[in-house]
Design goal:
Distance between the termini: 24 Å
Radius of gyration: 23 Å
CATH class of the largest domain: Alpha Beta
Strand content: 15-25%
CATH architecture of the largest domain: Alpha-Beta Complex
Number of domains: 2
Strand order of the largest sheet: 13-14-15-16-17-18-12-19
Number of strands: 19
Helix content: 10-25%
Largest sheet: 8 strands, mixed
Length: 429
């Protein structure tokens, strides 16, 4: 349980708040790069700031304030030019730094004037990695964007799922250090849902055994989560390897065949951008099919009747997070033994907030280019006793547009020696 002041410190993300300043030290994914191929401008709200992401005709990406400083119109309706974004109202144009570079009528009246040099909006660095656009809103110079090892895989097929959730980021991230919910939310509740005939996820998830032991270890990049299921031992990868929660807001789950990343990006105090990337890695000595664009999809939250969708694994999580309210009231919670990871994570957050307040740099801020270029973390080669999959099973967030290519990648592993055989299978958290 937290008091009200502690809860505010960990959940409020506006500029100048402790958590807002901490989150501004990290690169955050804000869009799939394929979105800008379909439409070159996109409204973005990040850490309480309203911005516009654009791609100009030269291919340069920019992230600047959403409103033109002239008459305060929305630049997401602006016109991408060869080098910059032009306001559709009076033609003022801005480059990726936020600097005004053209003022057509002003320059007609005052050809020698330098008014445009005095006009500048906020502009933030952006980078593209593995089909995602990342942004940095903190003080300059920006740290290096960490390239977690699976994001660097070359022979791979990728898929992106995006959700906009009406709840605070911390409710989402705390789920990652809560192993026990899997057997209840995704198995027991999944079985309950199935009785109503609306289960569409992989049936194998319904056969997952219960937890016998859970454990958490801090490591240099965050927390390693471990568990032992009924019928398994500490020699199984679920315990021996575990999977990492990267500080402050990333979960990675996977094996040598496929990996899932989940980013819980604060839009503002009461909304979260949930971005997942699935990566399917071709077997050694083989080649993955080419993707011109990494496909993306929005994951629906409610059905036609306005009820929370619960027949996908992610949506079950979403329902749990969102029904806690826009910001969970942790002054009223009653924590138990299953919440040891949650308690550890909150302590870690408070510690890193103190590091920042004392003038230091928090965990996972990379200032060394070589170290950031490929950051290695543990992988559970056999998860939930799962052998290498035989086919693509979209159990978490629906079907990929590139499911055929994913199945091609899976086939590249067919001739290799099998992994350990054990009962149960599924996609994990």
């Amino acid at each position: 349980m937290l008091n009200a002041q502690e809860n505010d410190a960990l959940t409020r993300v506006g500029k100048g708040t402790p958590m807002g300043e901490l989150m501004r030290r990290y690169w955050q994914p804000i869009a799939a790069s394929g979105e800008l191929d379909e439409r070159p401008t996109k409204s973005v709200r990040l850490l309480g700031e309203d911005l516009v992401l654009y791609k100009d005709r030269s291919g340069t990406l920019g992230l600047i304030d959403a409103l033109c400083p002239h008459r305060r119109v929305d630049l997401s309706y602006g016109i991408p030019e060869e080098h910059g974004l032009r306001c559709m109202y009076h033609g003022w144009m801005f480059n990726e730094t936020g600097q005004c570079i053209e003022q057509p009528f002003e320059e007609t009246v005052h050809p020698d004037g330098r008014f445009k040099e005095k006009v500048k909006v906020n502009g933030y660095p952006v980078q593209v990695l593995a089909g995602l656009v990342f942004a940095y809103l903190g003080p300059l110079p920006a740290p290096f964007l960490p390239q977690w090892e699976p994001l660097t895989w070359g022979d791979a097929v990728r898929d992106i799922a995006i959700s906009h959730l009406p709840c605070n980021w911390l409710q989402c991230q705390e789920n990652s250090v809560d192993p026990v919910h899997v057997e209840w939310m995704h198995v027991y509740f999944g079985r309950y849902s199935a009785e109503g005939g609306n289960w569409s996820g992989p049936k194998a998830l319904l056969d997952l055994p219960g937890h016998q032991k859970i454990g958490f270890d801090e490591f240099e990049h965050g927390i390693i989560k471990r568990r032992v299921f009924e019928g398994y031992t500490e020699e199984d990868d679920d315990w021996k390897e575990g999977h990492p929660i990267f500080f402050p807001n990333i979960l990675m789950v996977g094996s040598e065949v496929s990996v899932t990343f989940q980013w819980r990006v604060p839009i503002d105090d009461e909304h979260t951008l949930h971005i997942s990337q699935y990566i399917w890695h071709a077997a050694p000595g083989t080649t993955a099919p080419t993707q011109d664009v990494v496909p993306y999809r929005e994951v629906a939250l409610t059905d036609d009747e306005g009820r929370w969708i619960t027949d996908l694994v992610f949506n079950q999580d979403y329902m749990a997070w969102m029904t806690q309210g826009p910001i969970a009231d942790r002054t009223k919670e009653v924590l138990g033994e299953s919440d040891r990871g949650v308690i550890m994570f909150r302590k870690q957050l408070r510690r890193e907030l103190n590091v920042l307040a004392d003038g230091g740099e928090p965990m996972n801020v990379f200032r060394d280019a070589e170290r950031a270029a490929c950051v290695v973390a543990p992988l559970e080669h056999v998860k939930f006793g799962m052998r290498r999959p035989k086919k693509y099973i979209p159990g978490e967030s629906g079907f990929s547009k590139d499911s055929d290519k994913i199945n091609e990648v899976i086939k590249t592993w067919n001739d290799l020696p099998e992994m350990a055989n054990a009962p149960g299978s599924g996609e994990g958290e």
